[in-house]
Amino acid sequence: MPKSNNNNNHFPPKEKGFMVFERDTPHYKDKGERVRHYDEFLTDFDDRKMAEQGYRCMNCGVPFCQSGCPLGNIIPDFNDFVKDSKWEEALERLHSTNNFPEFTGRVCPAPCEASCVLGIIEPPVTIKLIERSIADHGFDDDRIKPEPPQKKTGKKVAVIGSGPAGLAAAQQLCRAGHDVTVYERAEEAGGLLMYGIPDFKLNKEIVRRRLRQMEAEGVTFKCNVEVGKTVDANDLEKEYDALLITTGSTQGRDLPIPGRDLDGIHFAMEFLPQQNRRVSNHPIEGKELLATDKKVVILGGGDTGSDCHGTSIRQGAKHVWSMELMPKPPEGHNVNTPWPLWPVILRTSSSHEEGGDRDWSVLTKEFVGENGKVTGIKCVKLNWEADAAGRMQMKEIPGSEFLLEADLVLLALGFLHPEHALPNQLGLELDPRGNIKADYGKYTTSKKNIFAAGDARRGQSLVVWAIHEGREAARTIDIALMGHSDLPGAYTYGYDAVELAAK
Ligand SMILES: Cc1cc2nc3c(=O)[nH]c(=O)nc-3n(C[C@H](O)[C@H](O)[C@H](O)COP(=O)(O)OP(=O)(O)OC[C@H]3O[C@@H](n4cnc5c(N)ncnc54)[C@H](O)[C@@H]3O)c2cc1C
Ligand code: SF4
User: CA-CA distance, 241 to 37, in Å (whole number)?
Assistant: First the structure.
């Protein structure tokens, strides 16, 4: 939206763009309409408006946004190309650091925008939206083609787990000329992009079109194969020159309080993938979970909890409550997390806007039920206070106990670590948190030529970090196999070829 009358086609000088144009983003479709389906719901935003948003980037001397982005995306460059509607150049620049901008452009929390210099005095540049539109333009204009390698190396790499970390690594390794096979236990590749993140946040056809590109480049996908169970990991170790483990952090945090064994209490990840499967017309194994006509309580206020919230509303829940143990964060601004840090502030997702209620500083004491089925949860309100060392301590508020009725309880309390069957079979060391032990930037595990990246190594994180680690691990593997690598890895401060050869 122009701040001043700017109806002619002449844009101001670049450095004044932010003085003329306000931050603008496409709207969400009406919530009454969007909760009736599982499609994405952003309204259209034309190229001229997008150019205006690109114009708002000041091209400042030190682009903090770029270091705020875990991928090191070259944000001022692509903002500038979009300002001039140079979509091809923008795509080329974006792909040079990010294999999958169509995913991050949809689901990334955009730490880049929190560190945008313009954000000090004005709403930041809408970087995530620009990224998404560059990627979507690329596919719509048929510019994103398979890029098979010019030369083959004869080396074979197995990637175990096909989430964003495994996919990014597989694409990089394939383009470096290695024969790459991705093993995935689910029936379709994509990890949490396919089974976990709801379709209304990320349409699965968007994942599939990228998988098709990778297959055309030469990546082999073997789905319905659980390494460690369906096939022995030690056989893969013998068959391949290198293994990369990207199996994610899938062990959900439980709540072992009285009544936990009642029927109707489930992990979020028992519930969410079922809805992905319904949308994709995949069969649902085991007990079907639906929020329809139920009083739903979601424990845990993060991304996963928010996804359960929006999914329950779409399924026609009678009521949805999202409860959080931690105190309500400040609204708008938090003095403890100033620019360019990620601001710890109250966030209201599109799912929260769609209905239901939220509450904070609530401790769940007990699940209660009848005839073996959950009917409610006993809760108490908390006071959070800093102790002498500045650590936040919780204290129950006397007399604040209450009972919340529930016939479906979803546990969205985070994830502990990866499952251990596979690393145990390979005899890999774990770190104190139960993740696969491999240093950040190096990705080498306790065994030669076995590498680990993504949530299985770093613990529960974000798509953008998974892509970053997958790209970096691919470079380390390439160096280990070939003695050098032409794969990009500007951020790698891991091994160089000499160190790796000595290992
Ligand atoms: C519900 C939910 C919503 C989220 N929303 C967001 C969001 O909006 N934005 C964001 O940035 N992040 C989000 N995240 C986090 C993000 O999805 C993860 O950080 C990211 O997917 C991790 O990528 P990964 O490749 O390491 O692992 P994953 O995506 O977890 O993929 C691991 C894959 O390995 C497979 N696998 C495991 N064991 C084996 C085996 N033995 N053999 C073969 N295959 C195996 C699994 O089936 C899975 O497909 C969300 C997470 C959840 C749970
Ligand atoms: S990947 Fe995320 S942090 Fe990086 S530029 Fe895109 S939205 Fe920003």
Answer: 46
